[in-house]
Amino acid sequence: MEDTILIVEDEKEIGELVRDYLNVNDFHVVLAKDGEEALSIFKQENPILIVLDIMLPKLDGIEVCRTIRKVSNVPIIMMSAKKSETDKIIGLGIGADDYIAKPFSPGELVARIKAQLRRYKEFSGFPKNKILKFGPLLIDEDGYSVSVGEKKVDLSAKEFEILHFMASNKGQVFSKEQLFSKIWGYDSYGDISTVTVYIRKIREKIEENPSRPAFILTVWGIGYKFDGSKFS
């Protein structure tokens, strides 16, 4: 019961249902009913994962996620009753690691939480003092950081994991399905178009010209690969 999960949900019945289900699965859960309370509890409890509703009183989930991302790479699963792609892209664009639409089954949420924790713990255990370098691009596994030349690049946890995984397997082509399964840790839930969103955002941050990338290349009809041969 050492892993604390923060559930941020203004509907009391839903929050308590999720809490009870996670308790059965040996997680310690704390609840917050609005965005301001969520940030206060986050500072006090240092949760290992956050399940965050988008529509919240006082401070919405998007602003809560943005604020947390300034100081932490803790996994964040956004949830919302809205099923539009707009909400999904907004959530991913601010650094959320996953998105689940209401109504959802408690079992599905637990599966996603376990997958996120597995991936987070795996990537938190990188060998120390290892740096991947491709020309101006440096990926610091120990520091969980990326820079291009003298400029530090701010990546979310998932963006870093995708970039690190692909750079560690330079030249290998991965389909969207393979990347989704490897990085998110499951292949029965979710939308593989999420991968496209993340690749686009990574390119915007590390490529000199995102429309003509030098690092993450599209292999038409198959997927993506990390190249970097231009800097070999």
* The CATH topology of the largest domain: Rossmann fold
- The shape is elongated
Span between termini:
48 Å
Order of helices and strands: EHEHEHEHEHEEEEHEHHEE
CATH superfamily of the largest domain: Response regulator
How many domains? The number is 2
Any guess at the CATH architecture of the largest domain?
3-Layer(aba) Sandwich
Per DSSP, the total helix count is 8
Cα-atom radius of gyration: 18 Å
Helix/strand-derived category reads alpha/beta
Mean of residue pLDDT values: 85
List unreliable stretches of 5+ residues: none
> Count the strands?
12
**Which percent band covers the strand fraction?**
15-25%
Task: List descriptors.
Arc Repressor Mutant, subunit A, alpha/beta, 22% strand, 232 residues, 41% helix, 4-stranded antiparallel β-sheet, Rossmann fold, 2 domains, 5-stranded parallel β-sheet
Question: How would you characterize the overall build of this protein?
Answer:
- With 232 residues, the protein is an alpha/beta fold.
- It has two domains: 4-124, Response regulator (Rossmann fold), CATH 3.40.50; 131-231, Arc Repressor Mutant, subunit A.
- It has helices at 12-24, 35-45, 61-69, 85-93, 106-124, 157-168, 176-184, 193-206; strands at 4-8, 28-32, 49-53, 76-80, 98-101, 131-134, 137-140, 145-148, 151-153, 173-175, 216-219, 223-226.
- The protein has a five-stranded parallel β-sheet with strand order 2-1-3-4-5, sandwiched between helices.
- Strand 3, helix 3 (61-69) and strand 4 form a beta-alpha-beta unit.
- Helix 2 packs parallel to helix 3, helix 6 crosses helix 8 (193-206) and helix 7 crosses helix 8 (193-206).
- The longest helix has 19 residues, at 106-124.
